[in-house]
Structures are given as structure tokens and as C-alpha cells.
């Protein structure tokens, strides 16, 4: 008899498994259809002995001390600030767009005040910001939009930015200084020995039983459990009764090279040339010393494992139908796939910690009849 059956051993499922086992003393069965833990953050050593991320680069960053300190229970950190270049017009320039980007691209020698005036002169007056195109042209104008965003977005989402919710482009800021870090979060670090080692420590509690290569359909009627927590696709849980929620997937092409480094920084974006969107070199991310190096090319596609929920109004409306079903279910839905949200890793951890707090409060209420009666009488007034 298990207290909880948790479906999915990524961040959402693993954090909840650990908290329920360690804090509440609950017996947890954690299952995953893949042959490994860690979800899309899973990393491993390839044949050359280089630590790589199987599902593309995962770079941890957060402004939440709670999230950072929680994960620090299971890993030491390596300080790392990610930097990205974009290859365009035969040059490699910083992205997000900053002062250096403009000076290099246009052969100028502007300071922060000058680049502010430059943006002011070229940006478009958009009254209502509804789409990703609106966000960018309002900030930096049409030319820079077409240089850095239009082609990249088309490859990544198979949609024009004018067809995508404003939230997508809003993730990428525009800077008037020389800050060339991709993220500006308070905490920027990588698990010292990799994500998988962190997950192994997180799931080492004796109250957690782990089953891999297991589809929940195969066992949920064979095993006794009190409550289910589901971190997989919400539409799959409800047998796609309203139709499939759209996602983008990625084909990853790995290449090991007999040289110490391949490129100038961790990731280089290719917004306009080639079929791939970017190339990432893992040794920058991990800090590993090795005579060889491994890179990954990313080719977005429409079919395959669901990675990115596509933020469009019609997709959100479809999700709301599943959300209504989920709200009536006794199952708890957590994570990017279960809530159809374009979450970063730290946001998933924060969501899982928040859900745990609610579960803990409910458990405390159930153990205290007077508090249950008090809450019940209040709710009836």
C-alpha cells in the first residue's frame, strides 16, 4: 500500500516524492516510462567520457532563494553564467541584444545613452501588444526583429512571431549596457556533478520506491495507493477527449570532435541560416576538462516527445477544457506538461514546493478534527 503514486520522475515528480517521503513520512511509488530519472534534465557521460544533456542544454538559474537552497540539499554548485552569441551577417554578436550587439552590427561606437536613442529612433509605435512580433518591434524596430527573431521563431515554433503569444518574446530582454549574460537571475549555477547525480540523491530516501520503463496505465489498477500525482501530459491523462494539445519537439544531433573546444561560448544561435536553431557545447556548461568536446545541434519539429507547449489563444482555450476536468479530479496535476505552461526548471521546482505545502496543510487539517470542524463551519457561513 502506497500513500502516493507519482507519475513522472522529472523535477515536479521528484521534488514531491522527496518532500512527501522526507517531511511527511509518506510511502511513495515514483514511476517513469523512460529508463532514467531526471526527466528532460537527465545527463550522462557519452562514449568519449563527456558529460552531456540528452534532451538539450539545461542551464539552471533562479531568483528564488527557496528553490536554490532546496536543491542545494542534494548537490554542490558550480557557478556558471551562460553566454549566447547569434551568428548573423557573417558576425557573432551577443544575444540578448545589448550595446555591443548594436555597435558590432552597425559599426558604431555608442554608449548606453546613445543606444537608448538609437532604439527610440527605430522602434515602432504599437498601441496594443498582443503577439511576439509586437513585443520586439515595439522595443527594437523592424530590422532587428527580422535579423534576430523572425527566422529563429519560425524555425523554433513553425509559426510567424505575429501568430505567437507575446509571452514568448517577452522572455528575451533588450539591454542598453554591455551585460552579455543570457540570464540576470540572482542565482546562476550548475549542479557540480550533473543533474542526474542531484536527482539520485533527491530520490535516495527509503520511503521512495522507483519503477522505470513503466507506463502508469500498466500498474495503476494493480497497485494500491491513496492518491495520484500526475506530471505527464494532461490531455493524455484524459485520453485526448477534447483533442491533442499542440507541442513542439526537437531532434538532437550530437557530435563529438577531436579538439578541446569547438565554439567561442556555450551556445550559438543561428536565427536565419541552416535548419537548426542553435549549437551548444557542453563543456562550457559543466566545466569539464577533456581533450575532446561534444556539441549538440537542435532541429525543431512538430512530432516527437512534447517539449514546448505552444502559447497561442486557441491552445490555451483547449487547455482550459482539460483544466476544468483536472479541477474535478482527485488526481493532483503538476509540471510543464500537466499544466501546459512554458516553465523553466526553477519554476517547476517552485510549483512542486507550493503544491507540497498545500498537501501538508490538508494533511494537518485531516489529523485535527477541531480544525476541520472550524474550517467547515467557516465555509458554511
TrEMBL record:
NCBIfam families (UniProt xref): UDP-GALP_mutase
Cited SUPFAM superfamilies: FAD-linked reductases, C-terminal domain, Nucleotide-binding domain
Cofactor(s) demanded: FAD
Domain UDP-galactopyranose mutase C-terminal: 148-342
Superkingdom to which the source organism belongs: Bacteria
Protein's name in the database: UDP-galactopyranose mutase
Organism field: Mucilaginibacter corticis
Keywords, sorted A to Z: FAD, Flavoprotein, Isomerase
Similarity-based family: Belongs to the UDP-galactopyranose/dTDP-fucopyranose mutase family.
InterPro entries xref list: UDP-GALP_mutase (IPR004379), UDP-GalPyranose_mutase_C (IPR015899)
Class in the EC hierarchy, top level: isomerase
E.C. number: 5.4.99.9
GO terms for cellular component: cytosol
GO molecular-function terms, A-Z: flavin adenine dinucleotide binding; UDP-galactopyranose mutase activity
Record-linked Pfam families: GLF (PF03275), NAD_binding_8 (PF13450)
Amino acid at each position: 500500500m502506497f500513500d502516493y503514486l507519482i507519475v513522472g520522475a522529472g523535477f515536479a515528480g521528484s521534488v514531491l516524492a522527496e518532500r512527501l517521503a522526507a517531511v511527511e513520512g509518506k510511502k511513495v511509488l515514483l514511476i517513469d516510462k523512460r529508463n532514467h530519472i531526471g526527466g528532460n534534465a537527465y545527463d550522462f557521460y557519452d562514449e568519449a567520457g563527456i558529460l552531456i544533456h540528452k534532451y538539450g542544454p539545461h542551464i539552471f538559474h533562479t531568483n528564488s532563494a527557496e528553490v536554490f537552497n532546496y536543491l542545494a540539499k542534494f548537490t554542490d554548485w558550480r557557478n556558471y553564467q551562460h553566454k549566447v552569441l547569434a551568428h548573423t551577417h557573417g558576425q557573432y554578436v551577443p544575444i540578448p541584444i545589448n550595446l555591443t550587439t548594436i555597435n558590432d552590427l552597425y559599426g558604431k561606437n555608442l554608449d548606453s545613452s546613445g543606444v537608448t536613442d538609437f532604439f527610440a529612433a527605430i522602434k515602432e509605435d504599437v498601441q496594443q501588444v498582443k503577439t511576439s512580433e509586437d513585443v520586439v518591434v515595439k522595443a527594437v524596430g523592424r530590422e532587428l526583429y527580422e535579423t534576430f527573431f523572425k527566422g529563429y521563431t519560425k524555425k523554433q515554433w513553425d509559426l510567424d512571431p505575429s501568430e505567437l503569444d507575446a509571452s514568448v518574446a517577452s522572455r528575451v530582454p533588450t539591454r542598453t549596457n554591455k551585460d552579455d549574460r543570457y540570464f540576470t537571475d540572482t542565482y546562476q549555477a550548475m549542479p557540480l556533478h550533473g543533474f542526474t547525480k542531484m536527482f539520485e540523491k533527491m530520490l535516495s530516501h527509503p520511503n521512495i520506491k522507483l519503477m522505470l520503463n513503466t507506463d502508469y496505465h500498466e500498474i495503476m489498477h494493480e497497485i494500491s495507493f491513496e492518491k495520484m500525482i500526475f506530471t505527464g501530459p494532461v490531455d493524455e491523462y484524459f485520453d485526448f477527449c477534447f483533442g491533442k494539445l499542440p507541442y513542439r519537439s526537437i531532434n538532437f544531433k550530437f557530435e563529438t570532435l577531436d579538439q578541446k573546444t569547438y565554439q567561442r561560448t556555450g551556445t550559438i544561435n543561428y536565427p536565419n541560416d541552416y535548419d537548426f536553431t542553435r549549437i551548444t557545447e557542453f563543456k562550457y556548461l559543466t566545466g569539464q576538462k577533456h581533450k575532446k568536446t561534444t556539441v549538440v545541434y537542435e532541429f525543431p519539429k512538430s512530432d516527437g516527445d512534447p517539449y514546448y507547449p505552444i502559447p497561442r489563444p486557441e491552445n490555451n482555450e483547449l487547455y482550459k477544457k482539460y483544466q476544468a476536468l483536472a479541477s474535478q479530479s482527485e488526481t493532483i496535476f503538476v509540471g510543464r506538461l500537466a499544466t501546459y505552461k512554458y516553465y523553466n526548471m526553477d519554476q517547476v521546482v517552485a510549483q512542486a514546493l507550493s503544491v507540497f505545502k498545500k498537501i501538508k496543510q490538508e494533511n494537518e487539517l485531516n489529523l485535527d478534527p477541531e480544525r476541520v470542524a472550524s474550517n467547515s463551519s467557516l465555509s458554511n457561513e
